[in-house]
Amino acid sequence: MAINYVYPEYEIVRNYDRCINCRVCERQCANEAHKYLSDYNKMTSDDSKCVNCHRCVALCPTRALKIVKSNHTFRENANWNGKSINEIYKQAESGGVLLSSMGNPENYPVYFDKILLNASQVTNPSIDPLREPMETRVFLGAKPDRIERDENGRLKNNMPPQLKLSMPVMFSAMSYGSISYNAHESLARAAAEMGILYNTGEGGLHEDFYKYGQNTIVQVASGRFGVHKKYLDSGAAIEIKMGQGAKPGIGGHLPGTKVGEDISKTRMIPEGTDAISPAPHHDIYSIEDLRQLVYSLKEATAYKKPIIVKIAAVHNVAAIASGIARSGADIIAIDGFRGGTGAAPTRIRDHVGLPIELALASVDKRLRDEGIRNNVSIVVAGSIRSSADIVKAVALGADCVYIGTAALLALGCHLCRSCQTGKCNWGIATQRADLVKRLNPDIGYKRLVNLLTAWKHEIKEMMGGMGINSIESLKGNRLMLRGVGLNEKELEILGIKHAGE
Amino acid sequence: MREGMFRNPSGCAISGIFSRSGKRFSGKCIIDSIATMRDRSNGLGGGFAAYGIYPEYKEYYAFHIFYDSKSAKKDCEKFLEEHFDIINLSKIPTQKVPEITDEPLIWRYFVAPLPTKLADSQMDEREFVVKCVFRINTAIDGAYVFSSGKNMGVFKAVGFPEDVGRFYRLEEYEGYCFTAHGRYPTNTPGWWGGAHPFALLDYSVVHNGEISSYDANRRAIEMYGYKCTLQTDTEVITYIIDYLHRKKGLKLEEICLVIAAPFWTTIENKPEEERQELEYLRSAFASQLITGPFSIIVGFEGGMMALNDRLKLRSMVVAEKDDMFYVASEEAAIRIIQNDLDKVWSPKGGEGVIVTLEKGRI
């Protein structure tokens, strides 16, 4: 056997005074990191198999386990850090592209953390959401450019199709395949209960979930998996996926091992075959082609549903969004470079795209400069981590946000970033029946509802503090934001002042 | 630093008097009314809008302009001559009042757009006038058009409103409607343009409060060609009203439902047809919703509208006596000019009170 150059990044620490050899850790770990040594009546662990997902830690009845970062180290080098060195070892061994999951973990600036919110003092009153109505309802979709009246002078309802949300949050696209049936059920039920929407991703829609159609966005991606007339009709909106923040310019790949009977049916592909989504849509090589797909989908659904076009935030995102706003799309979804994924080439995930805060600010500004901001709503994603991020995104100009990673965290994800292995111990990013059943949708959906309920309270508190009692008045209200530690150029792009100004 | 370079939150007093029969009365009443609320102002701004005061020139746009210098006046007049027939021009009559100092040059022009220029512009007449006003205010340094309607005029300055009224000799004007504003800005405005009312065409707004939706409203309205050069709430509210009324064709009642929209919980309990209309207005004009405290009086040709924010976070009282309609921040400011009232009430938040001239009167 070849020499293994890579020392494990994390170590499993077991307190043998507490371990009772119950073997829960062994049973729970799909990576087989734990083993019972019967000869010694003792548990042992293999650190190299550990992905640091905390499943064993959470289930150990005596708290005998913890995972620590290994302090094993290379000779210090400011240029060649341990990660870079280990990646070279891995590629020298495998000859392959490095794969990763979830969002970009690298140390790029998080602009949300450098923006502060305003509050009322003296010259106008803050509003207490416990005493006064505080409105978070949003409508997504194009707005009419002129009013029309009937013969009696009453306003005609010429409003293009809209999505009505109780708060400016939706669950972003995660396909059935990349995540489990139980994860999908949890998202669908939570969306229905909260009066928001979830998104099928590009894996089609399982028959069991058609009943949540009013709370479903059905996605049409480059692989066209699971797309048929009934599918398009079943959702409240249709999303054309042009790109994804975690892997701009790259398609998708669901390995055949994950394509079991159910997924094969839903995606309309043979069992066991790889589901490969091409990098581009091969019927869209330019903006006018996009327009044709937008109108094809509108024709197919009798102009009753808003069409969302989702793009990854890339360098000329403002111009792209401006083109999309003139292409008949009702909503533009922009996915920042920290957006999650079930699998992406590491180099793409970590080095391509833009921070969503900058992309959002420049798109909102460009659409306003061109007088077409009302043609579309803007939904932003990648990554929204808290209610404060939502408030800041809306104040920068977003109509709504998508959350993916945050929703998975609510379901139990521990961000071990190993989704691509398909061995998710939390039953989320896996198709193995024994693992999927670990996620109980009755509990999962409730945890999602709890998270959004808590966020809604927090959004109301922050709005009330600013003296704003309706989310419409927060949208694009950049005077409510100030930057800290940002340079002139960053402030200019964000369209905000520095703290103290 | 002068107004426009910084955001200047203000507290205020407002007052309005309207004769439904179109009977013209002197500006003295409105001075008496606003003077009663002296402690709601701090001497850093006061002003009036008066309607029906130029009957002999009622076909022409009356431009009131502040000039910082003679050269600004020269540049501006050159622009005016290129775009308008100037029917009459004069200094606006003022008198020296010790409390009012540092006055700019204050001129008045009665103008009509040049037919050829108007035709070339492919705009309707009012849009043409608006464009010209913006052009002067943003491109001609030291010139500022603060009144541009027909048969109406704005008079404003830095000072207490009653002093401003005496300075402009307001008691010598007669009109069917007057509104007034006493300002309590938190910063020194630095120049007279920042005082209120704020006006565009015949729309004038006096406003009390500080709106929390300011930047959302500003960024939305600037998309439609308006330029918020003063950074004041009153300016953006005026543009919103102009946009919704003149450009979008909404009725004033509908405008109230947009800018001080009823809550969703209220809307949901309405009968179906009304519910749909309310939902449509809120959704279609979401960016024109104004939140935070305000009471406003909007003057326009032949009418006046009083409106509070949706939570009624500012005081505002209205009253009637025969054909006269009164509105003020405080009841005392009405009673000082008419104590024998037929009716006095305090409109609810979001409930617009609109009065117009009886048919055929002006």
Write up what this structure looks like:
Helices cover about 30% and strands about 15% of the residues of chain A. Chain A has 15 helices and 21 strands. The mean pLDDT of chain A is about 95. Chain A is α/β, with parallel strands linked by helices and about 500 residues long. Chain B is an alpha+beta fold and about 350 residues long. In chain B, the strands form four sheets. Chain B has a seven-stranded antiparallel beta sheet. A five-stranded antiparallel beta sheet of chain B has the order 11-12-13-14-18, covered by helices on one side. In chain B, strands 5-6-4-7 form a four-stranded antiparallel beta sheet. The relative contact order of chain B is 0.20. The mean pLDDT of chain B is about 95. Classes of the chains: A alpha/beta (about 500), B alpha+beta (about 350). The interface of A and B includes residues 146 and 368 of A.
Descriptive keywords:
heterodimer, A: 501 residues, alpha/beta, Alpha-Beta Plaits, TIM Barrel, 2 domains, eight-stranded parallel β-sheet, three-stranded mixed β-sheet, 15 helices, B: 362 residues, alpha+beta, Glutamine Phosphoribosylpyrophosphate, subunit 1, domain 1, seven-stranded antiparallel β-sheet, five-stranded antiparallel β-sheet, 29% helix, 28% strand, globular
Q: Could you outline the blueprint of secondary structure elements for this entry?
A:
The complex is a heterodimer of chains A (501) and B (362).
Chain A: E1 10-14, H1 24-28, E2 34-37, E3 42-45, H2 55-59, E4 65-69, H3 82-94, E5 99-100, E6 115-117, E7 138-140, E8 163-165, E9 169-171, H4 181-194, E10 198-199, E11 216-220, H5 229-234, E12 237-241, E13 252-254, H6 261-267, E14 275-277, H7 287-300, E15 307-312, H8 317-325, E16 331-335, E17 344-345, H9 346-351, H10 356-369, E18 377-381, H11 387-396, E19 400-403, H12 405-410, H13 433-436, H14 441-465, E20 481-483, H15 488-494, E21 497-498
Parallel strand pairs in A: 9-19, 10-11, 11-12, 12-15, 15-16, 16-18, 18-19, 20-21
Antiparallel strand pairs in A: 1-4, 2-3, 5-17, 6-20, 7-8, 13-14
Helix pairs in contact in A: 4-14, 8-10, 11-14
Chain B: E1 10-19, E2 25-26, H1 28-35, E3 46-51, E4 61-67, H2 70-83, E5 84-91, E6 105-113, H3 115-121, H4 125-139, E7 143-147, E8 152-157, H5 161-167, E9 174-175, E10 177-185, E11 198-200, E12 203-208, H6 214-222, H7 233-247, H8 252-259, H9 264-268, H10 272-284, E13 295-300, E14 303-308, E15 317-321, E16 324-328, H11 332-335, E17 343-345, E18 353-356
Antiparallel strand pairs in B: 1-10, 1-16, 2-9, 3-8, 3-10, 4-6, 4-7, 5-6, 11-12, 12-13, 13-14, 14-18, 15-16, 15-17
